[in-house]
Amino acid sequence: MRKSNLIKVGDAINQFLKQEKLDVKISRFTVKNSWKEIVGEHIANNTLDISFNDTVLFLTLKSAALKQELSFNKQQIITNINRFCGSKLINDIVFK
């Protein structure tokens, strides 16, 4: 019996995305666009900027009190973001 060289289109696309490291860029884009859904309306409305540097998420927030509050919940936010993406996108968050 001949061995087929055919692969599923979805598998080929995923392989290409990982090879070109586009999967991380797409995940980062998705986090930015879905920020309100991930963290809720109150936090989203008080977020000025979201940026990434490797596996660190940088959040610029409007309020020092919110920065303090979120620092206590940092691990839960990391877990929520990674669960939302379906992969380990970030390891740490820096609040600015």
Please, could you describe this protein's structure?
- The chain has 96 residues and is α+β, with helices and mostly antiparallel strands.
- The protein has a single domain, classed as Alpha-Beta Plaits, CATH 3.30.70.
- 56% of the residues lie in helices and 18% in strands.
- A 3-stranded mixed sheet has the order 1-2-3.
- A hairpin with a 2-residue loop joins strand 1 and strand 2.
- It is elongated and about 60 Å long.
- The mean pLDDT is 90.
In the CATH hierarchy, the third-tier topology is known as Alpha-Beta Plaits
Helix content: 55-70%
Which residue ranges are poorly predicted, with pLDDT under 50 across at least 5 consecutive positions? none
Element pattern in H and E: HHHHEEHHE
Instruction: Going across the biggest sheet, name each strand in turn.
Output: 1-2-3
Structural class assignment: alpha+beta
Q: What count of helical segments does DSSP give?
A: 6
Oligomer status: single chain
Shape descriptor reads elongated
Distance between the terminal alpha carbons, to the nearest Å?
A: 61 Å
Task: Let me know the largest β-sheet.
Answer: 3 strands, mixed
Mean of all residue-level pLDDT scores: 90
Number of strands: 3
What's the CATH first level?
Alpha Beta
What is the annotated CATH architecture?
2-Layer Sandwich
Radius of gyration: 17 Å
What is the number of domains? Answer: 1
Q: Proportion of β residues?
A: 15-25%
